[in-house]
Structures are given as structure tokens and as C-alpha cells.
Design brief:
alpha/beta; eight-stranded parallel β-barrel; four-stranded antiparallel sheet; 20 helices; 16 strands
């Protein structure tokens, strides 16, 4: 007969019993002075902490008129090993609140589907259940599965808890706000609990009562200790967690392990730091240690929620894992209030590089595709670390040239294979000939997939071998190509010098330079009055003269009004050698734009009209 498994609470007690005490260190920096001795982190795990009734805004760390001050207490706490590392998401709750525009219900479903595509990696996904989100909740529940588990979130009041009545039996876990810093306690609860001397005690008992009520609706109550990195840790947080731990263990035992409290430590303002010697409340190693050792919360029931205001969100979250917190919360692309939450895919990357998670844990292509949708929806800019095109983009010609010779030079891994994000560049005054070649390569990847491998091979040859050594037919082609690239690069440099422009060129602007020198066919731009039969008249005239018209492309779906007349623009494609003949035939008909301005006109438009994309299949380059 197998012995009954040990409860998380008993396991925590055994771990704490075996832990070495925090050890004192000599800290030399004058920039982070240690506090008074009576503020040191306790070294006796049997220490009892009582509620401090006074408002403690920790002015030594948060002087308000100056930046926060991070102190060292000259102590290092031992890490607590966690058997597994788990992720949870707040994409549809906290992340939702920081977007340029809110997600539609259909878009929210796309986010949840991406979370599901990552297998069992994301364990929980939280969302709002307020009436205005009823349609979204219904749609999300329709596609939800076991992983991630959908969990609602409510504020700390019984009216919000009543919302769960409409979803009886649907949710197993509920997230509930329990703000824990004295900034919140004395700022939010003054009207509800007017007696300042008992306010912290009253708030603590109020939270406990709400937890009891929440257990009437769900098996797991997740309390969100908002603003914990500015909280009075031993004067409120630890005494509160001790009560929560007692309540949670009692529920766990009476329900045979089904019910318990989950504690989410929320670094609401992104103040948490990963440094081992950092003092509370900002030192994350000590915060996790205090929650487990003194607060009585098992690692399995502990979660960390970080923000990235000061660029340490990922590192703080990794520190929480290393010091005993099993669950880490974040969002795709770091969406969220202010600067945003911890970026889930970046957290994954760091956990993999530190061997905390296996390499094959997730297919990042799913996340990259969702990022492309977010950019297309206009919800976030295309500047996210790791999964955006910006993360692999450069303007520097020397970097473009180096990457063309060997992809390893400016990438630490194959971003195309691992992330689905290729190396990319912008053509500018700094990109040189290498930038032009790279843009042409991207052009072929977009419009000419069946010939891409052959043409990219030629481009690679042009980038990596001295022209003088090319004596074959391919070498002759490459020399012609190199000559054209030089002409394009010179034209771009002249443009920048003459115009005084500072920003990189857009794709349509690059195309205007490239197509002047590398068109496979001849292209003639026709400006015609918007009259029936005008285009037929011109094409019939050309055919009578023996010109083979190989294609016609209309650039203006709607006529353009100039003065009292309406015009349309059409582009015809002919054999390149026939272009002079066509121009001669059309001379005097007032239907053409002079050839040197054709490409600028076609791609950059006229009077605000951007006529056509350079990636239209109508165009071909000669390489």
C-alpha cells in the first residue's frame, strides 16, 4: 500500500527546517547603505511577527520627491529548489489594460488559441468576467481547454464575488485583489475603515472574510498582493500570510487536497530587483524567502507577477523562481499597464538559456504569428524584443554585409528557424551596397518563391566573392549585377546628400531606386483620360506597330481628378528591348510619364496617392 503523499504544507515545514539561516556579508558599496541593525532580515525561523498598526510608507526607501532608494541589509538568504517551473498569463486581464486599443472578443479568442498551441506550457490564463465582457467570456469558454485553465479576476468586494453565481461550476480558481502596501491600505480604505489605529487589522480581517466567501464558488482562491514591493513586509504581509496559510491548510485538509489559497506576489510598479543582497521590500530573493519561511506559503501555491518599468522584470521573475516560487506570470510581448508586464517569450528565452527549461519546451513561431496579428490590428508597435522584425533589423551596412557573408556574425542563433523572424534591414544612408543587395533578396523571398533559391544563390555569390574571380557566365551576370547595385547605392547616397533626409527609406522608396536599374522587362506608364476605350486605343496602336504587350496593370482603382478632368494610370509591360520603340510610337500622344521618373511615380505616388506595392507579382527584377 502506497503511503499517503505529503501535503505541500508539511513539505514546506520540512524544507524550512533544513534550510541554513541567512548569512551576513560585508557590503562595500557606499551607493546602497544598509539599514539599522533592528531592520535586518530575521535569521530565526521561529520568529513571530505581529501586525504593525502604524502606517509605514517606508520613507527611507520611497522618499517621493526623489527616486526610490535600494538598500542592502548585508544578508543573503538561501535559495529554495522548485521541482517544476510553471507559467501563467494575464494577457486578457492586466495585459488587456495597457493596449493602444482594446481587443475585440474575436481577437481575445486568437490570444487564447495561441496560448493553447503552446501545449501545457501556460497553466492558467486570467480574464475579466464583468457584464460588459459577457460576449468575450462566452466565446473564450467555447474554445477553452484544460491548459491553460481560464481563471476570472475580481476586486476585493462581495458584489464582485456575486458575479461568479452566473458561472456556477465553470471555474475552479478565482483571482482576487488584496492590495497589501500601506500606500493602498491607507489610501483606499479610509472611508470603509475610518479608524487609522485599527485599519490594517480591519483590512486583514476583511480580506480573510472575502477568501472564505470566495471558497463558496471555487476550489482555489488566488489572492493578488498588489504593490508588495512597497509593502510593510513584517508589519503586514507576513502576519497576513500566516493567517492565510492557516486558512489554506485547513481547507486543504478538509477537502482532501482540492481546496487551498494561491498567493500571487505582485510587483505592481516594477520595483523588484533580483540582487541577492537587496533589502526588503524590493529584494525579490528575500521577498520569496519571507513568504515561504515566515508567511507559511508552500512553493506550489506561490506565484510572482512582475512589471518591467525599470527593465528588471524578467530578471526579478527568474530570481523568484530560483528562490522558491513555482509560478511566474506574464504576458505576450510584455503588454500591460505603463511599460508593461514581464514579457513571457523573453522569460521563456532566459529560462531556456539558463537550463531551467528544455530547448524544445515551446514553438516560438506561434508567438511570432500572434505578434504579427497584434501589429496588423494596430494594438502594439512592431518593436517587441525577440519576436518582432525590429528585433533583427539594422540600418548599418557593415552589419548587413557581415550577416550576408555569415549569418552567425550578427545573430546568436538562427532567428528564422527558432522564432520565425528573419534577419532584416532598412535601406538608409548607412546601409551601402550591402543594404541594396539584402533588400533585393527580401524582394525575391516575397514575390518569386519558385526562383528564390537560384536568385538568392546569385546574390550570395555577389556578396561573398571578389568580382575579379568571376569569369564564368554566372560571373558575368554577377558583374553586371554588381555594377547595377553600385549605381543604385550611389543614387541613394546622392538623394540623402541632396535632400538632408535622416530617416530610413520605406520599401516603396527603395523600389523606386532599384527598378530604374534592374528591371527584367520594359515598363511604360500611361496617363489616360478617364474615358471608355482610351486604353484599348493605345494598346491597339502598339499592336499594329508590332509591339508584344506582355501585361497591363491598372494603378488607379478610382480616377484621380486634376482640374476639370479625371485621369487613370496604367502600367504596360513589354520586352526590355522594345521600350525605346514604344516610347517613340507614343511620342506626342501625351500619355506617358518620362522614363526617369516612372518608378518614383509608380511606387511613391502622386499628391498623396501611393499607387502600388513593389511586391506586386506584376514586377520582376533581373538578377
Amino acid at each position: 500500500m502506497n503511503p499517503k503523499p505529503i501535503s505541500p504544507f508539511e513539505a514546506r515545514r520540512l524544507i524550512v527546517k533544513k534550510l541554513p539561516p541567512p548569512r551576513e556579508i560585508t557590503f562595500m558599496s557606499a551607493q546602497r547603505p544598509g539599514p539599522d541593525r533592528n531592520e535586518l532580515f530575521p535569521t530565526d525561523t521561529s520568529t513571530e511577527f505581529t501586525l504593525n498598526p502604524k502606517c509605514n510608507l517606508i520613507p527611507s526607501a520611497f522618499p517621493w520627491k526623489h527616486f526610490p532608494i535600494l538598500c542592502s541589509d548585508n544578508l543573503i538568504v538561501p535559495p529554495i529548489a522548485v521541482d517544476e517551473l510553471m507559467l501563467t498569463s494575464t494577457n486578457l486581464r492586466d495585459g488587456f489594460q495597457g493596449l493602444r486599443k482594446f481587443l475585440s472578443p474575436e481577437q481575445m479568442v486568437e490570444v487564447l488559441k495561441t496560448e493553447r498551441m503552446l501545449g501545457s506550457l501556460i497553466k492558467k490564463s486570467e480574464m475579466f468576467i464583468y457584464p460588459r465582457y459577457a460576449e468575450a467570456v462566452e466565446m473564450l469558454l467555447a474554445v477553452a481547454g484544460d491548459s491553460p485553465e481560464l481563471t476570472p479576476w475580481v476586486r476585493a468586494n462581495k458584489n464582485d464575488l456575486k458575479l461568479l453565481s452566473a458561472y456556477a461550476g465553470v471555474f475552479r480558481e478565482l483571482g482576487m485583489l488584496t492590495s497589501c502596501s500601506d500606500f493602498h491600505i491607507f489610501g483606499k480604505f479610509a472611508k470603509q475603515f475610518p479608524n487609522e489605529d485599527t485599519r490594517k487589522h480591519d483590512v486583514l480581517m476583511y480580506y480573510l472574510d472575502l477568501i472564505h466567501t470566495a471558497f463558496e464558488h471555487v476550489d482555489r482562491v488566488r489572492i493578488h498582493l498588489e504593490d508588495v514591493t512597497r509593502a510593510d513586509i513584517f508589519g503586514f504581509v507576513v502576519p497576513f500570510l500566516k493567517k492565510v496559510s492557516e486558512l489554506s491548510e485547513a481547507r486543504y485538509n478538509e477537502s482532501d487536497g482540492k481546496k487551498h489559497v494561491v498567493v500571487r506576489l505582485c510587483d505592481t510598479l516594477g520595483l523588484g530587483v533580483p540582487y541577492v543582497d537587496a533589502a526588503l521590500p524590493m529584494g525579490i530573493p528575500k521577498l520569496i524567502h519571507a513568504a515561504i519561511v515566515y508567511g507559511g506559503i508552500p512553493s506550489e501555491h506561490l506565484e510572482f507577477h512582475g512589471h518591467d518599468d525599470f527593465a528588471l522584470g524578467v530578471e526579478a521573475t527568474l530570481a523568484a523562481w530560483k528562490y522558491g516560487c513555482k509560478y511566474a506570470n506574464g504576458t505576450f510581448f510584455g503588454i500591460g499597464e505603463r511599460i508593461g508586464n514581464v514579457q513571457l517569450e523573453l522569460l521563456l528565452f532566459r529560462a531556456i538559456t539558463e537550463s531551467m527549461l528544455p530547448q524544445e519546451i515551446a514553438n516560438f513561431h506561434h508567438i511570432t504569428r500572434l505578434h504579427e496579428k497584434f501589429v496588423r490590428w494596430g494594438i502594439i508597435p512592431d518593436t517587441t524584443r525577440l519576436v518582432s522584425k525590429q528585433s533583427t533589423t539594422t540600418n548599418a551596412g557593415i552589419h548587413i554585409s557581415g550577416a550576408g557573408k555569415n549569418a552567425h556574425i550578427y545573430s546568436s542563433f538562427d532567428t528564422q528557424d527558432v522564432l520565425g523572424v528573419p534577419f532584416s534591414m532598412r535601406v538608409s544612408s548607412m546601409s551601402g551596397r550591402a543594404g541594396v543587395v539584402c533588400w533585393i533578396g527580401d524582394f525575391f523571398k516575397t514575390v518569386d518563391n519558385h526562383l528564390m533559391a537560384q536568385k538568392i544563390a546569385r546574390l550570395d555569390s555577389a556578396r561573398t566573392h571578389p568580382i575579379a574571380k568571376k569569369r564564368t557566365m554566372l560571373g558575368s551576370r554577377i558583374r553586371r549585377f554588381e555594377k547595377s547595385v553600385t549605381a543604385i547605392s550611389d543614387a541613394i547616397n546622392s538623394y540623402y546628400q541632396d535632400s538632408g533626409r535622416l530617416e530610413p527609406l520605406q520599401d516603396n522608396e527603395v523600389a523606386a531606386f532599384v527598378f530604374q536599374h534592374l528591371t527584367k522587362y520594359g515598363y511604360i506608364l500611361l496617363k489616360l483620360e478617364d474615358k471608355p476605350g482610351e486604353l484599348n486605343n493605345i494598346t491597339n496602336l502598339l499592336k499594329k506597330k508590332g509591339v508584344n504587350i506582355m501585361g497591363i496593370k491598372s494603378l488607379t482603382p478610382h480616377p484621380i481628378v486634376e482640374g476639370d478632368k479625371s485621369y487613370v494610370y496604367d502600367l504596360i509591360r513589354v520586352v526590355k528591348d522594345a521600350q525605346p520603340t514604344v516610347m517613340k510610337i507614343l511620342k506626342g500622344t501625351k500619355t506617358t510619364v518620362p522614363p526617369k521618373s516612372v518608378w518614383s511615380f509608380v511606387f511613391t505616388g502622386n499628391n498623396g496617392h501611393e499607387f502600388i506595392s513593389p511586391y506586386d507579382n506584376f514586377f520582376e527584377l533581373e538578377v
